[in-house]
Amino acid sequence: MKKPRFHPFPILSSARLRLRRLTHSDETDLFALRTDEQVNRYLGRPAPQTPAEVQTFIATIDGGIDQDRWIYWAISLRDRPELIGTICLWNFSDDQQTAELGYELLPNYQGRGLMSEALQMVLDFAWNRLRLAALEAYTHPKNQSSTRLLQKYGFTSAGAVQQDSSAELIFRLTRFR
Question: How many domains does the chain have?
Fold first, then answer.
């Protein structure tokens, strides 16, 4: 299978959302997202300490997109430019048949079905544009909202893995051909 190509960058839209490329104008919103205690509660990552760290993160994301290593969307409401979350496909297998799914959403926007809407667009992209065979997602055992979201879209338990200081549940969704 051909390596995925993210050029031009795929902008995805739904009734309420726009998934677009992350830009430097998102620095303040991204800093708020990645330092939010509720968002980070189940993520095993250090929060950025300065806006400069977010600038470096954006540059890293851009570089990976330009090298077709991952695809990383900023989630915005359709009629507003502010970043409210992110969703990505990354960690592609060597044969480009599987990828890992990741996502995060500011607490003020949770519980409204917005991540479900974003995930539907990304699944359509993964199956129809990238022709992936399967997706995996890792979530903390106590993150019931994430588990419910994955199960809603047909992801099933594929075991667990130890990540740093805690276990993560693995969920897998296989595309039916």
Answer: 1
